[in-house]
Structure prediction request, 390 residues.
Amino acid sequence: MDSVSDPPFHEAYKILFDKTRNTIQENNGFDGDLLVAAEECELPVIDLNCLDNSDETVREECKSHIARASQEWGFFQVVNHGISSHIFSRLRCEQEKVFRQPFEKKTKEDKFLNFSAGSYRWGAPTATCIRQLSWSEAFHIPLTDILGSSGSNSLRYTTHFYKPFIHHSYRPYTQYQSNYVNFTFRRSCSIQFATTVSRLAQTLADILAEKMGHRSSFFKENCLPNTCYLRLNRYPPCPTAFGIHGLMPHTDSDFLTILYQDQVGGLQLVKDRKWIAVKPNPDALIINIGDLFQAWSNGVYKSVEHRVMTNPKLERFSMAYFLCPSNDTVIESRREPSIYRKFSFREYRKQVRDDACPGFSHTKEVRTYRKHIIMNEIVGYVTEYKSEEG
Prediction:
């Protein structure tokens, strides 16, 4: 039985589950929409300590590995990133406190925990079949909600690498002490995480630009704390007979995403035209290229389709940072001839919203998606329904 903190998935999706059961019975136990298990793999690993090495050859080799992984995989993981395992443990604990609050409180309370209005989301409101279902809940939090206005200047121009944060103790927690949840979550480990990944994102973006022959201030000028955000994710156990998406297949609508995930697993990506499961690494952060970087690089760096699968017994937590520009920022390919047209982030986001609206078709025949707004021609890359992840 679901707890008072869980979204009403079974009630909301009852018709979809019944429809799928009927389809399986009619087809002697087979449903083409159900998902096949994916082979597990380990993403390329980048040791960020190499960027501080006194040997220039080692530093340049590390940068080349970052660029190569972004071209060939669109995903990689980094270690020695400046966040200790203690902070990761605290992040998990703080997320549990937030998501354990009653569902009614999360959905109806204005400025819940002082997060921006409308930050809480769950499920997939426009789903018309099991394949489009997202069995998850999330908080979308602007970085300034975490850091406050004082964080803007300190993040904007910092490019140095970082040492692990000092461990701090904190008081025990009782289940519904909302004010204390807000205080510890927003002012302790989350600040440390947000500060570190913000700097890391800028560093990686600059490296990827440099490996294309560009040394510009584009990312520092356009991707600021008030345009970037964190997303806290929880994927409840899904005890069904079907392979259910925790998060729909999608590509990210940003420049870069930095992900911390727990050890439950479930993240999958497309590699060589097949789904592969990402093996959790307790010491690593996962980096992936977003749609905007693919356009900015003229297709050199790949924005790869990925998804999250549910676990029948275990809940999964993750926290993602999205490097986004302001709405007025113009994205223009840095190489000629360009396979993309020039577009603003505002224009792009409008297309994302239009694609996710209830009137959008979700059939297998649909082959256009958010990227058609920026591509002169779509060649060899198609997808079905695109979920709005941001």
Summary: The first strand starts at residue 39 and ends at 41.
